[in-house]
Amino acid sequence: MEIRSLSRSEAKVVLALEAEGTEDLTLAGLRQRAAVSPGFARKIAHELVRKGWLQRVGRGRYLLNPSRHGPDALPDTDPLRLGSRIVSPYYFGFATAAELLGLLPQASRVYYIVSWKRGSSHWPHLAQFRRVTIGPHRFFGIERIERRGVSICVSNQERTVLDCLSRPELSGGLGGVVQILTSAQRTLDWERLDRYLRRLRSRSLALRLAYLADSFLRIAPPPTRWLDRVRARSDEPYIPLGAPKEFGRRGPHDSRWHLIRNIPEARLRAEVDIH
What we know:
By secondary structure, this protein is of the alpha+beta class. It contains 12 helices and 11 strands.
């Protein structure tokens, strides 16, 4: 296995970063530290990536694999450390957030990174990450936690529930959403959920959440006053519980929540019963 050797110019860059306690690097920063031309800065970056000292996390952006990682040219494999550097601002969301918060077992091989910055949803050089782009006005409900010595941004419990319900395909399906809800039920802040729902301005999301909470939360059910506040109005149209493209639009009609139950309850309950 190749030992991570350094040329004089490469050493200036790495030693400067370690002396500063900095792990993030741009081409401009590399050029400044090595006192070289733009073309030579790109060559140094290429060599440092090849030798295992840097990992590319974006266009002209790199993450240092410091000397404490050892002498071998091994890339950093911690997806939380890498993912937290790919785009800014960001938060880990959907199934990733649910796993980090202990609401789902760690099973997904994809790490979902949410940002309001536009860009490709996939990074070819970082295949295990997927970007989910949202509007700036939807970028809230975030907290900072520490995992494996890395400080990262993640959606909080209430925002995670709403994100997963809005995009079940990124959260293990609606069965996964039910599992997330039942795992969180003892500590859910329903007033915060209500504030978030108003900010998201999604009536269908509120009705689907109320139906699932009323149907599946038995240990710590939602407050009656909240359910009464969310109850469907008589003039509201009926909406399908599951995505029509996958489940169609047929099923029993629930008059309380004006939902079309196009997914069998047994399928929704399966994940909860297993766990």
